[in-house]
């Protein structure tokens, strides 16, 4: 297969990137009164403005040519049609089947996946209603008031991010808590105020082997049994979401209470499955379905919209342009809606675990920068923390600004203050302020020449810093479903553009294996000879301090 760098579109983009380095977005805006119309897309509930990127018609044309050159649409169809595009694990990639609201059948290995999904959704719905309506009783006959989700990575971040984002829509039939960290501090804090008679644990683990999750699940069991004193209580207080029915059953969970997962759902794309149970328990099943419907709408858009009007495709192309061609190696996720305070943590896993790789799907070392590191924080808090870096550092960090027209919790005057900052920041990052303007401004403020000369260089903002704006009508199950699905498909497209296997995560295995061995050493008198001297001495030091304590 032709290497990406040999494609004519890739070569053209390399040349264009060199040319664009001397161009300021201010000039691009001045030269084209239609720039916003040209480089923005209005979907139901979401406006995507990408005009504040260092792009012009020629760049977009070549990026779209690249999509053709890499056969993007064909790959997309393969994903939706259950082909095994997870090449290293020989699996289909079907998180879209989980929200296939058209209910059209999808065949995989002679089975209709849609039927399996509908069956799993019915199982979820029955359980959710039982718990929320108080029919599901704990060992002492009391109704469940608190749900504790035990899981990590994709079995935590997606559901927790959504629970936080949609808090406003919860009727508080139950309280939902999350435990992900194996640091005992978290589970201790979560369990302290809870009554074991009224708590239901969801052990959420696709593999049911993840050490952190199993350790927390065992601690939760001990906590329950201390009060219940009878192992049969486990069946009433623990359910599992897992593809590993054997391990979940051995743990003591009744087979009826094991919710299905499949190998064709990646952990970081799994919130639409029973991994989303805490969401459904918190909001009610109807609202969980609305979340799926929002994602389904974007699945349809992704499959049907022409590439040049296709939001996830454009998001991926812009990321590629910024990182691979312009060399901006990190990207900030900057939500201005308090409800989205976990979005950047969620997207860190989604994007970096998917595409943080340096070998192509053909096994060749990739020579060009692939995806940026993802980081971020609520934008308004970031303004008073790290935005200095965004505005004036010599590392350029493109940002995704995400905000809502309507607040879900309006308080007089607050939303306009918030959103004025939202609009001002992308403007400032783009336009900047040059030395001439700075000097004129200082002069107008009555500063003398000496002060002007001293301060001017520090007050210059070069601008020309790329941002995307995603403006939602309001955070709701539907719009959140849309937003998440946009990013999911962006990640898929990035993988195809870069020839990366987006659906495996071999890079997390090495550390896991080493940790298992080191844990044995921490619990024994031995320290392996095979460690490097730093690691060996760190372990020895830890053990010696511990012995003295
Ligand atoms: O659901 P599981 O199998 O416990 O895995 C949790 C997380 O661990 C990882 O496998 C990384 O180790 C993630 O991909 C996954 O989301």
UniProtKB/TrEMBL annotation:
Keyword tags: Acyltransferase, Cytoplasm, Gluconeogenesis, Glycolysis, Isomerase, Transferase
Active site, per annotation: 353, 384, 512
Documented EC number(s): 5.3.1.9
Entry annotated with the keyword Transferase: yes
Pfam families found in the cross-reference section: PGI (PF00342)
Enzyme class: isomerase
Domain of life of the native organism: Bacteria
Chief place of localization: cytoplasm
Entry's Gene Ontology molecular function annotations: acyltransferase activity; glucose-6-phosphate isomerase activity
Catalytic activity: alpha-D-glucose 6-phosphate = beta-D-fructose 6-phosphate
Pathway named in the protein's UniProt entry: Carbohydrate degradation; glycolysis; D-glyceraldehyde 3-phosphate and glycerone phosphate from D-glucose: step 2/4; Carbohydrate biosynthesis; gluconeogenesis
Keyword DNA damage: no
Cellular localisation: Cytoplasm
PROSITE patterns in the cross-refs: P_GLUCOSE_ISOMERASE_1, P_GLUCOSE_ISOMERASE_2, P_GLUCOSE_ISOMERASE_3
UniProt function note: Catalyzes the reversible isomerization of glucose-6-phosphate to fructose-6-phosphate.
Similarity comment: Belongs to the GPI family.
Descriptive protein name: Glucose-6-phosphate isomerase
Organism the protein comes from: Thalassotalea psychrophila
């Amino acid at each position: 297969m032709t290497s990406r760098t040999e494609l004519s579109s890739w070569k053209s983009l390399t040349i264009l990137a060199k040319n664009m380095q001397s161009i300021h977005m201010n000039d691009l805006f001045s030269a084209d009164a239609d720039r916003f119309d040209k480089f923005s897309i209005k979907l139901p509930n979401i406006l995507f403005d990408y005009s504040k990127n260092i792009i012009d018609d020629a760049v977009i044309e070549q990026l779209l040519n690249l999509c053709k050159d890499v056969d993007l649409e064909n790959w997309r169809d393969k994903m939706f049609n259950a082909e095994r595009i997870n090449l290293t694990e020989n699996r289909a990639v079907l998180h879209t089947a989980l929200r296939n609201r058209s209910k059209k059948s999808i065949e995989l290995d002679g089975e209709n996946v849609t039927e399996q999904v509908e069956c799993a959704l019915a199982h979820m719905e029955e359980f959710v209603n039982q718990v929320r309506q108080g029919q599901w009783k704990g060992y002492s006959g009391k109704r469940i008031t608190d749900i504790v989700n035990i899981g990590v990575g994709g079995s935590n971040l997606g559901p927790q991010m959504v629970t936080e984002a949609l808090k406003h829509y919860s009727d508080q039939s139950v309280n939902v808590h999350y435990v992900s960290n194996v640091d005992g501090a978290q589970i201790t804090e979560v369990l302290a105020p809870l009554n074991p008679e009224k708590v239901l644990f969801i052990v959420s683990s696709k593999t049911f082997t993840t050490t952190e999750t199993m350790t927390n699940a065992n601690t939760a069991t001990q906590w329950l049994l201390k009060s219940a004193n009878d192992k049969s209580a486990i069946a009433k207080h623990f359910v599992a979401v897992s593809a590993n029915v054997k391990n979940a059953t051995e743990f003591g969970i009744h087979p009826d209470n094991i919710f299905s997962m499949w190998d064709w759902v990646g952990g970081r794309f799994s919130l639409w499955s029973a991994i989303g149970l805490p969401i459904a328990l918190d909001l009610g099943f109807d609202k969980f379905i609305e979340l799926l419907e929002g994602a389904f709408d974007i699945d349809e858009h992704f499959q049907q919209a022409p590439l040049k009007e296709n939001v996830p495709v454009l998001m991926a192309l812009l990321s590629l342009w910024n990182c691979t061609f312009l060399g901006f190696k990190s990207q900030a996720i900057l939500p201005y809606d308090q409800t989205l305070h976990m979005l950047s943590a969620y997207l860190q896993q989604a994007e970096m675990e998917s595409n943080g790789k340096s070998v192509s799907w053909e096994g060749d070392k990739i020579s060009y920068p692939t995806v940026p590191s993802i980081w971020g924080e609520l934008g308004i808090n970031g303004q008073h923390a790290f935005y200095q870096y965004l505005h004036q550092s010599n590392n350029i960090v493109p940002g995704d600004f995400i905000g809502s027209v309507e607040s879900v919790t309006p308080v007089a005057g607050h939303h306009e203050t918030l959103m004025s900052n939202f609009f001002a920041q992308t403007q400032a990052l783009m336009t900047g302020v040059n030395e001439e303007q700075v000097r004129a401004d200082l002069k107008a403020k009555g500063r003398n020449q000496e002060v002007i000369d001293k301060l001017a260089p520090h007050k210059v903002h070069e601008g020309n810093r790329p941002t995307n704006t995603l403006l939602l009508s309001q955070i709701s199950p539907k719009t959140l479903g849309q937003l998440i699905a946009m990013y999911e498909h962006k990640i898929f497209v990035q993988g195809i553009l870069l020839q990366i296997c987006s659906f495996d995560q071999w890079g997390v295995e090495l550390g896991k294996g080493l940790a298992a061995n080191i844990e044995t050493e921490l619990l024994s008198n031995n320290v392996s000879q095979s460690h490097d001297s730093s690691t060996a001495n760190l372990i020895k030091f830890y053990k010696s301090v511990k012995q003295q304590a």
